[in-house]
Amino acid sequence: MVTLPGGASMSTAPVVLRYLRRAGFALAFGFALAPGALLASEACTADTITLVVPYAPGGVVDLVGRVVADELRTSVGQNVIVENKAGAGSNIGTAAVARAAPDGRTLILASAAHTINPSLYKKLTFDAIKDFAPVGMVGSVPNLIVVNPEVPVNSMAELIAYAKANPGKINFGSAGTGSSPHLAMEMLKAKTGIDMQHVPYQGQPQATQDLITNRIQAMALTMTLAVPLVKDGKLKALAVTSEKRSEALPDLPTVAETVVPGFNVVTYLAVLAPAGTPEKTIKCLNAALVAGLAKPSVVERMKPLSAIIAPSSPAELAAFMVKDRDQWAEVIGAAGITVQ
To answer: What CDD domains does UniProt report for this protein, alphabetically (predicted)?
Structure first.
């Protein structure tokens, strides 16, 4: 449906190098200069940078956020700290950044919830588009469509056929109403005409445990959590929800190539600043972010998270966010999903 800016691909080094050339950044960024020397001579801000992660520690957004913070710290030559502000489906941390001074010292690592929540919550204290200045995309983490091994299907086509033959009998879990994995399954239902029952949980670990014990039968599960369980035989993977196949499971087809052409639902990760942050500061932070993502060490740190690095310019990210918000507004409206 929506393609990440920069072209999400597991061949990350060539992608980042192409982006650096396209954006006009000198290839000296992160290569010809000594480590840590990137922008130290012209700091992006005058003080410590706080990168807000609007979720609790330990999840995939938090883990990616710590990689991003490390690389910004090295590239910018200033201290960068991660602050977890969890709650209300990421809205608490997001609202705090929207209210922060637009001086480049407060950033947020936004995920798919940033552009989903405007359609879920009737009263938000911020505008997900107007109250933020895009810095750049980090990348994405796809989901896997997984089932309990006892479910008698081995492909997406078989799952669709089984669901149609047994309407309403397949229960699928999610990390909560309106989460990216939940909406991935709702989109699958809408595009294929199948009837499955949603069972929301207070997080992916609880839902995953019930999937393993067959209390629920299916789920779209973040690859970070799903891949080890699939390799251990505790879950059966049918497809990946990204536009392209994953390097972690290269033989596993995508939903798009099997049952729903164009299907592409991922948890994107992007750095945003408060609206009104000076353009010079945004450009500086974007250059530092893109340079950091080009490093082989970063690629290696992202691999265990199944994260696909896909950098972007601020303008590309801005266009993506509007398109993603509008896409989910349509899906959520059609499914009648709300959060009280």
So the answer is: PBP2_Bug27
Amino acid found at 146: V
Q: How far apart are CA 119 and CA 337, in angstroms?
A: 9
Q: Is 81 helix (H, G, I), strand (E, B) or coil?
A: strand
Q: How far apart are CA 338 and CA 186, in angstroms?
A: 13
Q: What does the pLDDT read at residue 6?
A: 40
Q: What is the DSSP string of 49-102?
A: EEEEESS-TTSHHHHHHHHHHHHHHHHHSS-EEEEE---GGGHHHHHHHHHS-S
Burial class (CB in 10 A: 0-12, 13-18, 19+), 83: middle
Which residues have C-beta within 8 Å of that of residue 29, sequence separation ≥ 6? 20, 38, 75, 287, 290, 291, 294
Residue-wise pLDDT tens digits, 211-269: 999 999 999 999 999 999 999 999 999 999 999 999 889 999 999 999 999 999 999 99
In the three-class reduction of DSSP (H, G, I as helix; E, B as strand; rest coil), residue 49 is classed as strand
Nearest to 15 by CA among 294, 211, 321: 294
**172 membership: H or E segment, kind and range:** strand 171-174
Residue 170 · residue 162 · CB < 8 Å: yes
In a 3-state reduction of DSSP, which class is residue 41? coil
Q: Rounded to an integer, what distance in angstroms lies between the CA atom of residue 228 and that of residue 75? A: 33
Could you tell me the domains of the chain?
12-141+268-335 (3.40.190.150), 142-258 (3.40.190.10)
Under a CB-based contact definition with an 8 Å cutoff, are residues 142 and 308 in contact?
yes
